[in-house]
Amino acid sequence: MGGFYLANEYWFAVFQLVTAMLGMGATLTPGDFRAILREPKAVTSGTAIQLIMVPLVALAVISAFGIAGGVAVGIALIAAIPGGTTSNIFTFFARGNVPLSITITAVTTLACLFTTPLILDFLITQYMPADFAMPRVQIMTEIALTLLLPLVIGMVYLRLFPGSAATFSKWVVRASLLGILMIVVGSASSGRLDWQAFGLINSVLVAGLIALLALASWLICKALRLRHADRTAIDIEVVVRNVNLGFMLKASLFPAVIGRPDPIGDMVLLTLLLYGTLQLLIAVALILRGRRGAKRGSGLDIAA
Question: Does residue 228 lie in a domain region?
Fold first, then answer.
């Protein structure tokens, strides 16, 4: 299994990402994006936080603690990718503004076609080998084919087959979860998930990153006096990153080679896996906080 996975790591990541985006697309209609016009302040604020604040927090963490190598690249990938598709579901459970969550997810997903290579170039070029060149065109092409195209196909499916779209979305999302499982099992069987080598300090740094993102988002949203439901949606959107895209970009930028150690690529993978696990735990806390705030405030700007 390990050798087969290493030889096909990129396609495992592509399968996982494409199925996740198909599932999301099958839940979206053009009407969902009208929230951009109805709530310009919340959408603009949430998008700016995603595209500006998140990379700046990542840069601060990398610089303040002198992080280099695969962990720095992993943190940069986390900052460069848009919010995850599951953020919309978590926002629903938290009684947040679901249309706002969907809109920010869609806008940042479209924007990442251009912003992801720029953010990566800004954050990690200095940590890469001297002969490394950021493959901007390749990254943009892969995002278009594995992120945006499946999203559009899913939306077309909903348009043509509305009666079965919910079932279709459910099964392809389950397939994407199977894809994550295959990535974890394949990486473990190939000996690449060496948590001891990753170390406690790096684990604490990744945990600190996610805590800082949650705190910074909450403070900015409070300062902007956004409604509680809007703050909940944005906070969850900031924390829950599209780690699926991170896996695909990692496989593209640092492809595994059988018989050849890859300390940078392995550390990137471990960083993404750890963040993906921790973001679920933080999301649970945000859901509980959001539900408590919704009970107390009925959409007013109150303390959560």
Answer: yes
Task: Flag whether 296 is in a domain.
Answer: no
DSSP letters for 190-239: TT---HHHH-HHHHHHHHHHHHHHHHHHHHHHHHTT--HHHHHHHHHHHH
pTM above 0.85, yes or no: no
Residue 82 to residue 230: CA distance in whole angstroms: 18
Residue-averaged pLDDT of the chain: 82
> In terms of Cα–Cα distance, which of 74, 44, 45 is closest to 278?
74
- Which CATH number belongs to the domain containing residue 256 in this structure? 1.20.1530.20
Helix H or strand E segment including 295: helix 263-297
Residue 299 is assigned to a structural domain of this protein: no
Tell me the torsion sign for CA atoms 196, 202, 204, 208.
negative
CA distances from 69 to 46, 120, 272, 297 (A): 30, 14, 14, 46
Q: What is the pLDDT of residue 86?
A: 72
Average pLDDT of the residues in 227-245? 90
Let me know if residue 232 belongs to a domain: yes
Secondary element (H or E) of residue 103 = helix 98-124
**Which DSSP category does 49 fall into?**
I
Q: Report the number of distinct structural domains present in the chain.
A: 1
